[in-house]
Each structure stands twice: as structure tokens, then as C-alpha cells.
Amino acid sequence: MTTVAEGLLLELLDPANRADPYPTYRRIRERGPLQLPEAHVAVFSTFAECDAVLRHPSSCSDRMKSTLAQRHMAEHDAEPRGATSFLFLDAPDHTRLRGLVSKAFVPKVINALEPDIRTLVDGLLDQASDGPFDAIAGLAYPLPVAVICRLLGVPIEDEPKFRDASALLAQALDPFMAMTGETSELFDQQMAAGRWLADYLRDLIAQRRRRPGDDLMSALIQVEESGVQLTEDEIVATCDLLLIAGHETTVNLIANAILAMLRHPQQWTALGGEPGRVSRVIEETMRYDPPVQLVSRIAGADMTIGDVEVPNGDTMLLLVAAAHRDPGVFDRADEFDPDRGAIRHLGFGKGPHFCLGAPLARLEASVALSAITARFPQAHLAADPVYKPNLTLRGMSTLFVAP
């Protein structure tokens, strides 16, 4: 027999609700925290709860610390996995890795990309025909992967392979992946994409060791602190993170902002006439329709969040997209209004895991959104958008715009 909590989560999983999950988020938020003791899962959906979990010193990002992961390893006599990105690590490993990587990701490196990003955006928009064009395939999707490839020093002819690998591997970030009818064929494709990417990156590392360049890969090889450097496995894991998480989230940010403004034409016109508004549009998009809809944390000790006791080892799912529509925090929470004043959101995380790539995502979105609204002042939706099956990194597969 399905419990109310399980029923709400199944409703959230239903692909039919992907285009507009917000009524389901509202029902979950109004019901309060959901606990599934047998699954060792607690689901939080208010702003205060999600914020508290992200700030709590006992919240862990290492999924291997969960009760279910520990049980699985014990039952299968498995060893913990090797190097992983710092997205799924805790202190002290997270502190060391993030500190080293951040040295190669300083503002000077990001700001130096702006001329290239503007050239890329102008070139992509030049290809938009007089008729309807797909803002995903024509702008939001190719831009971030091209930028990441330039950051890493990947030859332009290899960018399509990176795009394909990114799309496949992004689905593996979804904690509900196993519940969404994933096929063994898709799993095999993801494994193959992961192997190809790792092999490619190792070959690129070897090339950069022999001939360092002016790129992020070379910088990651060279960073050092007190005699400590990144290992090859750690460099590969970091580049995986930049490509997979960084690409898909930026695609969704650009596309979600385009859709929100097209559905609120006064906002499209306002940005086209006043490029300085773009930061407000971006931050309101992060609140109103965030690229990352939920995040997870593991309770590293018995925790109390609000009135809920979370046992050590339980997984906490934070529905940040629901938290961003919390009427107890936001006036007119369901309205898209870049002029609402101070805009709070959890879209880039909090604390030690605050998104290292946030400045790059904001820069890419700023250039893209300012350019498309100025280039096509009379643009309007040409068709209803189509959404991918992804729940965590919820985003569109097509978004046709009539210029």
C-alpha cells in the first residue's frame, strides 16, 4: 500500500509533470517534511528547512556515508570508490581539493573568457534563421560546452563528442534515476560515455604535461600548495564535474530564463532595452525556475531539522525548487519578477559547497540573454517547450522561438 508521502514522490517522478512540477512541489511543501524510514530518506521542501540542512555542520555530501551505501558495501564485500569530484566529498578531502582547484579558477581566468563568449554567442545567433529556431540547440546547449572545452584546451573538432557524453552522464546525477524506468541500454551508454571521457581526459593530461598551455587543464596540473598537487584521478574527476554538472546547469539557466521572459514579454522587452538588468533576470530565474531542482545530503550524525529527527546515515533530499516558491519567505512566490528587490535563492548551494562555477555560469547567461533579447526584440514562443526526463537537472530538450 502506497503511503501519502510515497504517492507525492511518485507524482513528482511522473514525466507528465516535468513541464510544470510546481503544483506538486506546493502540495509536498504544504504537507510538511516527508519521511520514508524504510528507505532511510527524509524530504524537505521549505526554504528554512533546506537552508538549515545546507548550513548544518553534520550535513555530508559523500554518498558513501549513507546507511544504504554502507549496507550495500557490506553485503557485497565492496571497496569504497576511488577518486571522485569534490562535489561528493567532505572535509578534509573536499577542503584540500577545492582549495587547489580554485587556484586555477580565479576571476581573472573567468573574466578573460568574456570576449570569446561574446563571439560565440554572436556567431550562434547569426545562424538563427528568419523563421522559428530552437534556442536549446542553437544557443543554450552549444555555448557552455564550447566554453568548457576552451577552458580545458579541448580541440574544437572534439566538442560534439563532449556534448554527447555530457548529456548521457548528466542523467546519472539524478538520485531517482533507478526509479524512472532507466533501461539497461541507457546504463550501458552512460558507462561507455564515462569510459570514453576518462580516457580522453587522461590523454589530454599527458599532452599538457609534455606541452603545458594557457588553459585550465595545464593550470590544474601545475597547482600546488605546501608540496601537495592534484593526482591524475583528481584532475579527471574535476574535469568530469566541470563538463557534466557545469554544462547541463548552465544550459538550463539560459533556457529557463529565455522561457520565463517569453512568457512575460514585458521582461523580454525591458532586458533588450536595458542590458544592465540581466543580473536581476538571472537571479530571479535561479529562484523562480532553478536549473537544479533538488540536492541531497547525508546526515553525518543524528540531526534535528525543524521538528524532524534525522538519524545518522539517512539521506536528506532538499527540494530547492519547492523552497524557492515558499510563500512564507517570498511575496508573490509564483510570479516571475526580476524587480522584486533582494532575491534569495539556494540555486548555487551554501557554505563550503557553494558552486565554484557560479561566476562562469552567470557570465555565460549574462552575455547570452542580453544578446538574444537585443537581437530579436519581437521574439515570441513558436511552440510549447519539450522537457527531458531528468528530474534533478530539469531542463528542456527543445524551445522554439520565433524571432
Write the SSE topology.
Elements: H1 4-13, H2 22-31, E1 34-36, E2 41-44, H3 47-55, E3 59-60, H4 67-76, H5 93-103, H6 107-111, H7 114-126, E4 133-134, H8 135-140, H9 142-152, H10 159-170, H11 184-210, H12 216-222, H13 232-262, H14 265-273, H15 278-288, E5 295-299, E6 303-305, E7 308-310, E8 315-318, H16 320-323, H17 358-375, E9 380-381, E10 386-387, E11 396-398, E12 400-402
Parallel strand pairs: 2-8
Antiparallel strand pairs: 1-2, 3-5, 4-12, 5-8, 6-7, 9-12, 10-11
Helix pairs in contact: 1-2, 7-17, 9-13, 10-11, 10-13, 11-13, 13-15, 13-17, 14-17
Structure description:
This protein is an alpha+beta fold. 51% of the residues lie in helices and 9% in strands. The chain is built from 17 helices and 12 strands. The strands form 4 sheets. It has a 5-stranded mixed β-sheet with strand order 1-2-8-5-3. Strand 6 and strand 7 form a beta hairpin. Helix 11 crosses helix 13 (232-262), helix 13 (232-262) packs across helix 15 and helix 13 runs parallel beside helix 17.
Structure, briefly:
The chain has 403 residues and is α+β, with helices and mostly antiparallel strands. The protein has one domain (4-79, 86-402): Cytochrome P450 (Cytochrome p450, Orthogonal Bundle). Helices cover 51% and strands 9% of the residues.
Strand content: 5-15%
Give the tally of β-strands: 12
What's the end-to-end separation, in Å?
A: 51 Å
Helix content: 40-55%
Mean pLDDT: 88
Count of individual helical segments:
17
Tally the structural domains.
1
According to CATH, the fold-level topology is Cytochrome p450
CATH architecture: Orthogonal Bundle
> Spans with pLDDT under 50 lasting ≥5 residues?
none
Radius of gyration: 21 Å
The name of the CATH superfamily reads Cytochrome P450
What is the N-to-C succession of helices and strands? HHEEHEHHHHEHHHHHHHHEEEEHHEEEE
Strand order of the largest sheet: 1-2-8-5-3
Question: Looking at the structure, what is the overall shape?
Answer: globular
The CATH top-level class label: Mainly Alpha
- Please give the largest β-sheet: 5 strands, mixed
Q: How would you classify the helix and strand content by structural class?
A: alpha+beta
Cofactor: heme
GO molecular function, one term: heme binding
InterPro entries: Cyt_P450, Cyt_P450_B, Cyt_P450_CS, Cyt_P450_sf
Keywords: Heme, Iron, Metal-binding, Monooxygenase, Oxidoreductase
